[in-house]
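Before surveying the methods themselves, let us examine one representative protein, written as a sequence plus integers encoding its fold.
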Amino acid sequence: MPSRDLGGERAAQRERTDLAWQRSAFSVLALAGVVLGIAARRDAPALLAASLALIGVAGAVWRRGRAAYLRLEVAAQPRALAVLSTATAAAALLAAVVVLVPL
């Protein structure tokens, strides 16, 4: 999606930021799909809740990226990145538990 006419580097920064948030949301969504597949294979309803939670996180990440894209200024987002890092670590922990613990 092309940026509004902001000129050169600022428009490119906006595009890169938007694409990074989209990649992050897609990654979490892919992990939700993997967890959902494991839930179906193992007949583990608890993993369905985890998959739904990951889908919610993916939606929140995507919305955050859209909000950053629509802002006029291009600025660092340390708080949002801290939340995303925490969510990524939690998702990795969830994936480790799913793989290592028989449910």
Remarks:
- The two ends are 43 Å apart (CA to CA).
- The mean pLDDT is 82.
- The CA atoms of residues 3 and 15 lie 7 Å apart.
